Every structure is written in structure tokens, then in C-alpha cells.
Amino acid sequence: MAAAKRIEIVRPDDWHLHLRDGAMLEAVLPYTAALYGRAIIMPNLAPPVRMTAEAEAYEGRIRAALPEDHPFRPLMTLYLTDTTDAADLRAGFESGAVTAVKLYPAGATTNSESGVTDTAKVASVLDAMAEIGMPLLVHGEVTDPDVDVFDREAVFIDTVLDPMRRRHPDLRVVLEHATTARAVDYVLAEKQGIAASITPHHLVINRNALFAGGLRPHMYCLPIAKREENRQALRRAATSGDGRFFLGTDSAPHPARLKETDCGCAGIFNAPNALEYTARVFEEEGALDRLEAFCSLNGPAFYRLLPNDDRIVLEKGETPESLPDSIAVPGGDSVRVFRADPVPLWRLSAGRRPVGRTA
Ligand code: DOR
Ligand code: ZN
User: Tell me: the pLDDT tens digits for 117-146?
Assistant: First the structure.
């Protein structure tokens, strides 16, 4: 059979996205809005998005950065703290203003200082969420500096996630940006109530990419890329078609100057080419027929939403599409775009709306 050169799928969604605010929001939003129907918007602004009214205000700023009547739909999340108000969260979910709640263990990553110090402190909030079916999105890493950074996800699953799920068996949980075979095995072993988002970059790179020929700050994100055997497990999970795994790009822009420095920020910006890399992975795994499930169907099913009602077309070219290495942020900063060889030959040939500026 000839290798596929064209694939048509239901328009994808991004189930984990950092858009930031202000000038950065303006710079990065066009790349996501050009392609995805919806995206789950992470609340780790400074200060974080903690209350429904703050999520509504943030959604307003996102919508204001889009052309009028643009069909892209941001799905807002609240940032869980030790003092989150269950009544506010419940009202936000029931009105449709808020789709999910994000749990950052305090200190785990960018702007997580106000995160949860102990899941026991939010037990009544988790009970309310379980009752109304509101998903809890989990950054699954322990923050104990004595735990090896490459082990923090596996230790979190055993010491925080699993005990929390035993205490709240009806809670619907997404283990965000799964990076380990342990995470995949954990999700597969459970009967219900847990899914995992997977990023394109964790399907493409392993931890060697951080040190290839020198220190590579643009390959640094959290959870950090792990050993090759973990990448292989993620690829098997993503391409399996299993409804518990779906695309969350974790596109997380930082100005290049804040990554290329002592104590550089964690985050990989992949919004301009995340789907193309994902298609490359599915082609390499002989699973292009399951790309649609991972990118466009499994996520809506978990979130109890309908899939998008239009379609996009990807075509395989002879040479890589000429994408910018960096994009410009109004005010003078630039953000590096994720790149790992081989650069995908897949490109969108139909269904993309025009995008913004390059550096
Ligand atoms: O690499 C990361 N960047 N991981 C996160 O959890 C947060 C994100 C960010 O906001 O920059
Ligand atoms: Zn993230």
C-alpha cells in the first residue's frame, strides 16, 4: 500500500495550553486559534486565576485578542489553592464559565507558589467536584527537592495521586502531560475516572535532547523529558486509540532571554507545529488512522463535549514547511518555536485560518 499523503480529520482541540496575558497572549494566540476548535486554558498567570470572575475576565481578554466572531473557544480553568471556595467553583462550572480545575502542587513549576500544599486541605472542594463531575487536571510531580527530578512524576502517582483518588473515588482526573511508563501503566490499570494528556514534545524527544552537544534550554520543560523507554511507552499509549489518552500540547511560551539564562524557565512553545509533529509520530508508528482519535475525539469524550463539527486536512510535502524559528512578541521579546529533527513534512492544507507575526 502506498504511504498516505493526505489525511482528513475532525478539527482537533488542545486539552492543555498556556496562553499567558497581554503582549504574549497577543503573540501566541493566533497559532492556536488558527487550527484548534477549543483549548483548555491553564490558569497559572501571576496572580493566578482563582475565582470564576477572574476566569471570566481572562476569557474576555482572550476573546478580545481574537478577530470578531472567531470560532476558537477557550475553555477556562481555575487554579486550586488551599483556600478555594467550593461554592464559587460549583457556580462557575454550572454556568459554563469554567470547565475544569487545575491542581499544581505548591512549588512544582511556573507560578505554582499559590498551589496546593496538601490535598487533604482541599478535600471538601474535591468532594464537590466529584459530585458535579468537574474534572481535576493534575500537574503530577512531587516537589520534595530530595526526590530525583526524573522520578517526581512516578513518586507523585504513588504518594499523592493514588491516595487522593482512593479518598475521592468519583473524582474525574486528568494526569496532565504524562511523561513516564509508570503514568501510562497507572491510567491503563484503572477502570474509570482517570485519563492523561500527552504533549507532542514528550512523544518526540527524550532527556538526551536536553544535553545534545551542550545545554539546550529550549528543550527544558516540566515534567522534564525522561529516558527513551518512557517516550516509547507514551508513543504506544497515544497511538493505541485508547480513549483515555489525548492531545494536550502544553505549549508554554517564555521570552527566549528568560530561557537562555542562569535558572532558565521551564516550558516549550509548540503551538505553531504541535499537530505536525504529532502527525509525524503517528506516521512513524504506522497509526495515522488513529491520529483523529488522539487529537479530535478522545478529549471531547472525556470532557463530555461533542467533537468539533468541521474538518481539517493534512498533506505530506516533499520538504518541510518553512516555519519561523522564533515569533516576535510586541515590545521586543521573541519566543523560540519547538524544533526537533526530523522536521515534519506534514502540513495543513485546508482548515487553517491566517496566523500572526514572526520574529
Ligand atoms: O514546562 C512547563 N511550563 N511546565 C509547567 O508545568 C508550566 C509551564 C509554564 O507555565 O511555563
Ligand atoms: Zn502546562
Answer: 999 999 999 999 999 999 999 999 999 999
